[in-house]
Amino acid sequence: MDSPVKKPLTSRRGMLKSLAAGAIAATLAPTILSDEKTPVLGTGAHTYEWVREWAKPPEGTEFGDTHGVQVDSQGRVLVHTNRSKDSVYIYDAAGKFIKSWGSEFRGGAHGFQLVKEGNAEFLYLATTGQKLVVKTTLDGEIVWKIEFGLPKEWAMYSTNYSPTNVAVADNGDIYIADGYGSSFVHQYSQKGNAKPEYVRSWGGGGNQPGKMSCPHGIFIDRRGKEPQIVVADRSNVRLQYFTMEGKFISMVKEELRHPCHFDEYKGDLLIPDLHGRVTLFDKDNKLITHLGDNPDPKKRSNNGLAKDQWVDGQFIAPHGACFDKDGNIFVAEWVKTGRVTKLKRVGA
């Protein structure tokens, strides 16, 4: 288990003395300077400083059940929240509030994926309250909606539908994880910005290979020779891999508690785990480190945990997480008042 490590303060005089003594020692490892109250998580190159309350909601409001977070090409951080007045809050790279939008999704915000398409960027929202998958611009202009109302092709697969996340392939195909519905994945074909057309479905409830129990997150894993679909099969406590046509390939069971979703940076797979930690896997899906692992099982996934019980350096309920271009990590937690934390990369 990874626990916060407190780094001692290094004085200027002490630093100069060390440098003088080791003037010829250019091989000295980088020194991480940190305030005593600032937890440092991880190991080696995967070391991060916990940045407390990096983004706050505008005065007079609170986030309420933060579900997702994404970073756009300008370095702006977009936060997806369920119970605020608006559902999307946009911040600059320093954590300063810019604007918000999306009041029509209040009470239903859940899945949140930013996708670059050509020179433009779009958001794909999966709303459990309204049972919608929506494509929008970063300013909230709706491009299209896939509304609840099962197409005839779905009839044999699903009578209950509540989408939790969306993934988009390089060819524009859309994969919808019906995590709170009937545990299927539904694939659509998208041509430009035209409303998508249904292709196929697979999965369904169960614990056999290819079956799922709450496929909560879904992502296109491009780290191998060919892209594959990886699903956070949350209630089965595993990841499942599929071809782009929905054929089962493999699964990962180790070092997981309740995986929610994914992001990737230079071969590392980022997994927010609802049960109190954020996990990093290498290119072979072997554990690199757990970040912010909460040692108290009673606090893990505890939506109503009082703020005076929160501990810096320990997560409660990570629901969404992403990297920025520099490898910093942003984490949105499913807690009643909402919490967004930045993990600043300080490892060499």
Structure description:
- The chain has a 5-stranded antiparallel β-sheet with strand order 1-2-25-24-23, with no helix packed on it. Strands 3-4-5-6 form a 4-stranded antiparallel β-sheet, with no helix packed on it. A 4-stranded antiparallel β-sheet has the order 7-8-9-10, with no helix packed on it.
- The model is unreliable at 1-35 (pLDDT under 50).
- It is 3% helix and 40% strand.
- The protein is mainly β.
- The protein has one helix at 12-21; strands spanning 40-43, 46-51, 66-71, 77-81, 88-91, 97-101, 109-117, 120-127, 132-137, 142-146, 165-168, 174-177, 184-189, 197-203, 215-221, 228-233, 238-242, 248-252, 263-265, 268-273, 277-281, 287-291, 318-323, 329-333, 339-345.
- A hairpin with a 5-residue loop joins strand 11 and strand 12 (174-177).
